Amino acid sequence: MIRITLQYFDGCPNWETTDQTLATLLAEGWDATVERELIDSYDWAVKRGFPGSPTVLVDGVDPFAEGDPQPALACRVYQTETGPAGSPSIDQLRQALAGAEKGNSYGDQR
Predict the structure, then answer these.
(1) Which of 68, 58, 61 is nearest to 94 (CA)?
(2) SS (H, E, C) the chain
(3) Where are the domains of the chain?
(4) What average pLDDT score do residues 40-65 get?
(5) What is the C-alpha separation between 68 and 62, in angstroms, rounded?
(6) Is 70 exceeded by the pLDDT of residue 38?
(7) Which CATH superfamily is domain 2-101 in?
(8) Residue 108 in this model has a pLDDT that exceeds 70
(9) pLDDT value of position 29
(10) What integer is the mean pLDDT of 69-94?
(11) What is the average per-residue pLDDT within 93-99?
C-alpha cells in the first residue's frame, strides 16, 4: 500500500484542490492511504522540511522536489502540463503513484 502524506497550512487554498484530486485517485482504485499533516508554524516547517503548501509525500518522499528547497509557510508552485499551478495535476500525481508501485518514490517527475 502506498502511503501519501498531504502537508499543508491553513492559509493556502491550494491544498484543498490537491486533497480533492487525491480523493479522485483513490476512487479510481489506487492502493493508497492519505494522511493530512497540518504545518502550523515556521518551526514545524523547518523540522519537517516543508517547502510550501501543498506538499505531497509519496512513501515519505516528495516526488516534486527541485533543488534544495527552503522551509516556508507559503503556497507552493508546481510546473504542470498547462503551466504553473498551485497544485500538481492529476496526471502528475498518477505518475508519482505509479512510480511508487514500481518501487521508486518519484515516478517520472524528474
Answers:
(1) 58
(2) CEEEEEEECCCCCHHHHHHHHHHHHHHCCCCEEEEEEECCCHHHHHHHCCCCECEEEECCECCCCCCCCCCCCCECCEEECCEEECCCCHHHHHHHHHHHHCCCCCCCCC
(3) 2-101
(4) 96
(5) 12
(6) yes
(7) Glutaredoxin (3.40.30.10)
(8) no
(9) 94
(10) 95
(11) 95
Are the C-beta atoms of residues 3 and 59 closer than 8 Å to each other? yes
2-8 vs 55-58, strand pairing mode: antiparallel
Query: Which three three-digit cell numbers place residue 92?
Result: 502528475
Nearest to 45 by CA among 59, 55, 36, 35: 55
Beta-carbon count within 10 A of 51 CB = 20
C-alpha 74/C-alpha 91 separation (Å) is 24
Hey, what amino acid is at 24?
T
Q: Which grid coordinates belong to 61?
A: 518522499
Residue 107: per-residue pLDDT: 42
Residue 109 confidence (pLDDT) above 50:
no
- Whole-number Å distance between alpha carbons of 75 and 55: 9
